[in-house]
Structures are given as structure tokens and as C-alpha cells.
Description:
- By secondary structure, the chain is an alpha/beta fold.
- It has two domains: about 5-210, Rossmann fold, CATH 3.40.50; about 220-370, P-loop containing nucleotide triphosphate hydrolases (Rossmann fold, 3-Layer(aba) Sandwich), CATH 3.40.50.300.
- It has helices spanning about 10-20, 25-35, 50-65, 85-95, 115-125, 130-140, 155-160, 165-175, 190-200, 230-240, 255-265, 280-290, 300-305, 325-330, 355-365, and strands at about 40-45, 75-80, 105-110, 125-130, 150-155, 180-185, 205-210, 220-225, 245-250, 270-275, 295-300, 315-320, 340-350, 370.
- The protein has a seven-stranded parallel sheet, with helices on both faces. Strands 10-11-9-12-13-8-14 form a seven-stranded parallel sheet, sandwiched between helices.
- Helix 2 runs parallel beside helix 3 (about 50-65), helix 3 (about 50-65) crosses helix 4 (about 85-95) and helix 6 (about 130-140) crosses helix 8.
- The two termini are about 40 Å apart.
Amino acid sequence: MLFNQLGLSAELLRAVEQKGYSEATPVQQQAIPHILDGRDILAGAQTGTGKTAGFTLPILQNLQNSHSAEGRKKIRVLVLTPTRELAAQVSESVSDYGRYLPFKSLQIFGGVSINPQISKLRQGVDIIVATPGRLLDHVQQRTIDLSSVEVLVLDEADRMLDMGFIRDIRKILKVLPKQRQNLLFSATFSDEIRTLAAEFLHSPQEIQVAARNSTADRVTQIVHPVDKKRKRELLSHRIGAENWQQVLVFTRTKHGANRLAEQLTTDGIKSAAIHGNKSQTARTRALADFKAGAVRVLVATDIAARGLDINRLPHVVNYELPNVAEDYVHRIGRTARAGQEGHAVSLVCVDELKLLHDIEKLLKCEITKEILPGYEPDRSIKAEPIQNGRQQRPSGRRNSAPRKNTRGGNGPKAHSGKHGRPASRKQRAG
């Protein structure tokens, strides 16, 4: 179906055409008419399916239909995202598709000064794209008025729950008008997602554009069994021997991401790390360098990579398998976007065989294994417990402390335990 068959205005169709699109994706075909009709939506859509345009376009259309030029602008649309990167991506889409419309948008997240955000809020905006933590900072400081919100979007809701944002979301729901349109987008429909949906969606139209937890059809997946101590050597070998020019590599921890990026750079492969401890400026710069080709390898944790929009990304590498099988699906979903082919490579040591089994059980298929000559695993090495990384999904914020204005959109920060020692490592290490 073409975009010009979906009832969108001439201004929106002009912006869509300038983005180079003419045919709507399945999620766009299903979501746009229902959102235009004012229905609540519960949509199962993975990254790369076009879901952002799927809600941005009809929201802009509805704003245009009811727009009044009188008086100061009020916040009519609130989009909540789990990470800063995704907030920036959605905000960019709003600006791109609304370029010929009179609406103002603002992205709100931590890691940057709150004062410029306050200044722009005072000038008046129509659309807010925010991470939960920084939005609540504004709510608590009374620097934002959400009493006129007509549409609420929860984007990548599964990740927000996974990161412990459920309490923040419920606090935000309490300050919003009861009469509004609600749109929930999630890569998976877990029991927790359905419970949340039941709390605030009203007779929602359910949309499912892919089988539950399915992986992208165009992703070629392969596992290379290898000893843990030889993973970096094997990764450098594959990147160099096959001349990979753009590679997104996943590690479990921030420290592991830093260390691997440094090692690869020492090997002559320009690399950068991106994770929650990096400043927003550093993260933005690393991503820009990666997209521009100045950085060949981007090493990321799961949280930092969620929401990254990288066109034509050919290679994703699981340097370490995730502790939660669903995260594997999110990781490899970074490649094979917008109809492109993609390759997902996993380097698996003996410690991770149980994790691999869980992933294959989720996918309901066995991933091809290939032992590369010269990198045969040492069969005498026994499996050891995996010490780092997330061990279980957090059900909410733990060890809560007063917020700070520098807080980012990457989930709860770790707080010190008794005598200044770190608190439980059960918090996700993204």
C-alpha cells in the first residue's frame, strides 16, 4: 500500500517523499488508519519495521486537523522512550515528517543540562519526546505542564519495563489527563506488557506484524565456538580477513565494552565504546563517527544500543551472549533493516553454552555452528559461572535515591551500599 492511500495530508506526503519513501510497511499500513480514527493501539513491532513513522505520521495528521493558531502552545503529545538515543531518533522523525507543519517538538533526556529544556518549555511546544527519569525531574520541579496531553506513546515498552521504569511510568500516568489516546509499541508481548496495557489502554486495537520473538528474515546467523581468551583475536581476524567496514559489537558490561574497544584499536581497527557511563556528548560523537565511517567498530552494551538507528548496518557481533535470550533478538535486529541483508555472528565460549541453548529454544531453531581453523576450542576447559552482566530482569527501581538533574534515560543508577561499597550487582550492567 502506498502512503498516498492512507489519508495523509499533502504536507505529510511531501515530507515522506523527501525521505525517499513511497510504500508503507505492514505496521504502518495497520497502525496509521486506527490512530487516525483515535483508537488506542497495542502494537507488537520490532525495530526496523517502520513503527516510528507508523505513529508519528498519524499523530501529526490529527494535530493538523485540530490545530488552532490562537494562544500559547500546549503539550498535546507525549512520547516516552527508554533511552536517550531512541528519544533523539524519534524526535528527529517528528521534525522530518513535520517539517511543513507549524508544530514545535522538544526532546527531553538526562546527561545534558536541564536549563535549556526549561527555557524551551516556557516558549511553548506541541510534542515532547522524553525518557521517564528526566521527565519526572521536570514534573517534580513544576517546569512542565502535562495537563493538555491528548496522545501518549510508550515506545519500546518492553525495554522500559526491563530497565525498571515501571514505577516512573505509573507516576507519569497519574499526572496525565484521563481522556487521551494511548499507543503502546513493544517488540514482545510478555505478561508484564499485557498487565501494563490493561492498566491504561481502552479497548485497544491489537497489531502484530511479526511472530512473537521472531528474528529478521534477512539476518544470516552463525555461531563460532571459541575459547574466551581467544575471542578478541578471532574477532580481529574476521574483521580484517573479510574487510568488514561497519561492525556493531555487543558486550555484557560497560567495562568490557571499554576494554574491547581499546584492544581492537590497538589491533589497528578504529573502535569506540558506547554505554550508560559515557556522557551524552561522547555517545553522540561515537555514533556519528560510526555512521560516517570514521570508526569501524562500535562496541555497545544492550541498553546503549537500544534505539540506535543505523542504516545499512551489515554486521552485528555478539562478543558475549546476553543473559536474557530476548536481548539476542533485539541485538541482531540492529542489522537487516529497511529490506537490507545482514549478518549476525556470535562468539561462544564454553561458559555460554547454556545461554546459547536458551536463545535457540526461544527462536525454535538451531543456529549454525562453525569452528574456524586455528581457533578450535580447548575441550579440557570447564565451564565457569558468568559473573558479570544482568542475571535477571529487575522488576522496578531498587535502592532509590533522590534524582539529580544530570540523570540520563538509561535506567536506574547503581547506588552505594553500606560503608560505601557497591550495592547488589543484580542491577543491569548496561
